[in-house]
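Example for tutorial group B:
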């Protein structure tokens, strides 16, 4: 294998790699100025030259060789067999180029080269995403008159014109990102490739950066008639040309977006109203965890409303400070915001409560000795380290709950308290029980040995049933096991999901906890109706999800652990999620 050297322009030949494959998962540019011409040290990196500017729009074909436009791309040659993580690492760019030995001017040149290469790769990614989207046509989705189709009006918008509504989910799994980020990537790619070819070309040539390209995309994306908008393509092209001239002149991304939007409005007076209405439809409230037990609640709303809310919260906080409250004003703003939303003084509204779950690892037990006159048949009993869940374990657990707080740990008013019994070695959920059920089991004891001390099983996971609908006990078990939707990357609480048969009931799948998983309504529809997706689950709840393109991601129940990890042998209290959302759209 050979390639043109990024340093000197010479042809560098490498020894043929035996039984090897080219791993292009780690693209990296190798570039040096002519003043630093030198040969690259012998590394396990082969310098492959790609001219990304010569990708013929809109189809990605490598054509023409322009020496001034060469971009060096390091392609790692990996052996075909697995390599131990303890083995030697691959080469790094910093090893080959050694920035420590460069002058400041050379370092600045490297930063410019990196920015140039990053722009070209972003443009190339847009073409790749657009081509993959073209292979997921919207015609495969269910029509509006068929059961299982998407619910209109539930989300602010629909999938891009002509693309399957589930392609963003596939892209999210393939790139290990959130569905929101995948949707943004998809929409940006389609706009660049199909609506703004001049901006795409400038990005592919490294003439503008990603931030400026995104600014033009936000201002003009979806406006053209060809993309489902109402602006003639010629008008969009005129505004695009004007915006591109501003971007090339170095206008900042924020200012570029504002000027482009203003230019669009000047040519189409109704554009501002359409943009405002579209933005209002995308208003939402989201929560993002930060650190140390804190989270951000982001409220996207019209600017005048947001300004009025902030002013009101700030005014109340300053009144509290004037009244002698010593806490920081920012903390006061946050607490006042929560009070205004939750309104704890308002008894006319339904109270907000909690759904709590106690995680109780079961200790390993030594089997009790039983007399020959009272044999124990535990062939059908699930075991922990060889022992079933016994009356003695439940009695000890009840004592621990009573010791947590005066009067014992109980469900909050209007809420629930679930107790999840987990295997201490694997973390796998064994059984679920409520506080009243636990008390009844402890009072009743073993039906066969009233004197106690036996190793008979008195509790296990819900049994399989011969019907389609899961039992309430099964639903409670899988929600406690899964805690969220099991689709990779989805964090919707299990209380707001469907109990789905991994192996379809119509195809012989059992209504059993080992064949049931929690899927939110969207991913339930994806699994049932989107072609090419495959789901498989093992007995311990490990779920493998494979996309139509063949990429597989594995999710495990949150409590399950890989071999060798240790589970704290103590009670843990976790939030059980919100109660089911009554406004969740109908499934079919």
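The residue assignment follows.
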């Amino acid at each position: 294998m050979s390639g043109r050297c990024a340093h000197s322009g010479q042809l560098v030949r490498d020894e043929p790699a035996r039984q090897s494959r080219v791993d292009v998962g780690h693209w990296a540019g190798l570039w040096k100025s002519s003043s630093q011409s030198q040969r690259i040290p012998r590394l396990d990196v082969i310098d492959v030259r790609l001219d990304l500017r010569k990708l013929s729009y809109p189809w990605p074909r490598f054509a023409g060789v322009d020496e001034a436009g060469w971009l060096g791309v390091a392609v790692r040659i990996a052996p075909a067999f697995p390599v131990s993580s303890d083995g030697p690492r691959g080469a790094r760019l910093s090893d080959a180029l050694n920035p420590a030995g460069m002058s400041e001017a050379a370092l600045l040149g490297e930063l410019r080269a990196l920015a140039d290469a990053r722009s070209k790769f972003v443009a190339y990614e847009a073409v790749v995403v657009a081509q993959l989207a073209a292979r997921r046509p919207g015609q495969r989705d269910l029509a509006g008159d068929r059961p299982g189709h998407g619910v209109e009006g539930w989300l602010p918008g629909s999938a891009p014109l002509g693309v399957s509504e589930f392609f963003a989910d596939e892209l999210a799994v393939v790139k290990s990102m959130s569905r929101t980020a995948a949707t943004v990537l998809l929409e940006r790619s389609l706009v660049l490739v199909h609506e703004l070819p001049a901006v795409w070309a400038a990005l592919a040539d490294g003439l503008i950066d990603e931030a400026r390209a995104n600014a033009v995309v936000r201002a003009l994306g979806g406006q053209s008639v060809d993309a489902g908008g109402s602006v003639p393509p010629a008008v969009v092209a005129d505004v695009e040309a004007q915006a591109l001239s501003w971007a090339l002149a170095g206008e900042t991304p924020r200012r570029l977006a504002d000027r482009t939007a203003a230019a669009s409005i000047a040519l189409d007076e109704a554009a501002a109203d359409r943009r405002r209405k579209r933005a209002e439809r995308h208003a939402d409230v989201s929560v993002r965890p930060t650190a140390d037990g804190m989270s951000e609640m982001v409220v996207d709303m019209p600017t005048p409303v947001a300004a009025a809310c902030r002013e009101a919260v700030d005014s109340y906080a300053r009144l509290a400070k004037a009244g002698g409250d010593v806490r920081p004003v920012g903390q006061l703003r946050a607490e006042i915001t929560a009070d205004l939303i939750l309104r704890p003084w308002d008894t006319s509204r339904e109270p907000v409560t909690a759904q709590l779950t106690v995680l109780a690892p079961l200790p390993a037990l030594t089997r009790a000795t039983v007399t020959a006159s009272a044999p124990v048949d535990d062939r059908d009993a699930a075991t922990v380290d060889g022992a079933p869940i016994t009356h003695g374990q439940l009695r000890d657990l009840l004592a621990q709950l009573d010791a947590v707080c005066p009067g014992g740990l109980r469900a909050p008013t209007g809420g629930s308290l679930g107790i999840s019994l987990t295997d201490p070695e694997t973390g796998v959920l064994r059984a679920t029980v409520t506080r009243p059920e636990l008390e009844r089991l402890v009072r009743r004891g073993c039906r066969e040995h009233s004197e106690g001390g036996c190793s008979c099983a008195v509790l296990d996971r819900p049994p399989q049933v011969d019907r389609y609908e899961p039992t309430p006990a099964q639903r409670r078990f899988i929600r406690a096991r899964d805690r969220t939707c099991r689709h990779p990357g989805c964090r919707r609480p299990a209380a707001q999901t469907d109990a789905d048969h991994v192996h379809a009931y119509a195809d012989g799948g059992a209504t059993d906890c080992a064949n049931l998983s929690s899927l939110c309504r969207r991913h339930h529809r994806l699994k049932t109706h989107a072609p090419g997706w495959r789901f498989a689950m093992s007995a311990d709840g490990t779920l493998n999800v494979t996309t139509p393109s063949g990429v597989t991601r594995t999710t495990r129940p949150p409590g399950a652990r890989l071999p060798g990890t240790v589970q704290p042998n103590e009670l843990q209290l976790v939030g059980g999620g919100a109660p089911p959302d009554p406004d969740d759209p109908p499934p079919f």
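Confidence is low (pLDDT under 50) at residues 1-85, 364-387, 576-588. Compare this with the pattern of hydrophobic and polar residues in the output above.
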